[in-house]
Amino acid sequence: GAVVSQHPSRVICKSGTSVKIECRSLDFQATTMFWYRQFPKQSLMLMATSNEGSKATYEQGVEKDKFLINHASLTLSTLTVTSAHPEDSSFYICSATAQRGADTQYFGPGTRLTVL
Amino acid sequence: GQSLEQPSEVTAVEGAIVQINCTYQTSGFYGLSWYQQHDGGAPTFLSYNGLDGLEETGRFSSFLSRSDSYGYLLLQELQMKDSASYFCAVRDPGAGSYQLTFGKGTKLSVIP
Questions:
Q1: Whole-angstrom distance between the N-terminal and C-terminal Cα of chain B?
Q2: B65-91 per-position pLDDT tens digit
Q3: Does A105 touch chain B (CB under 8 A)?
Q4: Across the interface, do B87 and A44 touch by the CB < 8 Å criterion?
Q5: Do A49 and B99 touch (CB under 8 A)?
Q6: pLDDT of residue B99
Q7: What is the DSSP string of A48-84?
Q8: What residues have CB less than 8 Å from B1, skipping those under 6 apart?
Q9: Is-contact A35 A94, C-beta < 8 A?
Q10: B94 has a chain A CB within 8 A of its CB
Q11: Over the stretch A29-85, which tens digit does the pLDDT of each residue have?
């Protein structure tokens, strides 16, 4: 149980375009989803926390107008990287918790974004 | 703020035991978790310590001492497939009730 999927797994796009990444909890309802970014050989950096039906809470330094997060249902959250630039190239990972205050986050397989 | 310290790299021999330490400084503390991440993959949950002491799950064990702000992950009977990065993470209420702050990770290399 507790499976989280992400789509796409890899995406290559041109600079200036927008890219949408989907995160789905397949066998549970996710009250909270998290979006992380990870650069090569570095740790996971939390970008934002998303609760179903409410606006995402962004971490300091993360531009909310550039990284649009929508948590439309208890099983789906989307991250849209708008006007992508090469420096946005990274590994984007989502995670989800099955209940509020849960200690265990279940991670998706990640999305490798390359902006040319 | 929150900070977690763990060694950047560890090398160990197949079949041996290795311990990865983690010290933390956080404004609050709800527990210490450990995650494994293989190259190119997503993190997978290994263990969680909310209270002091040792938690054992198969070949992996995790220990916590809240008074020392210290924990470790112990891997026994190392296998080649254990080569991965291991992250400790603290659930810190000061950062939001549900958020984890990750350490920078320890890259474990298991050699024959």
A1: 40
A2: 999 999 999 999 999 999 999 999 998
A3: yes
A4: yes
A5: yes
A6: 77
A7: EEEETTSPPEEPTT--TTTEEEEEEETTEEEEEE-S-
A8: B27
A9: yes
A10: no
A11: 888 899 999 998 888 999 998 887 788 889 889 999 999 999 888 899 999 999 999
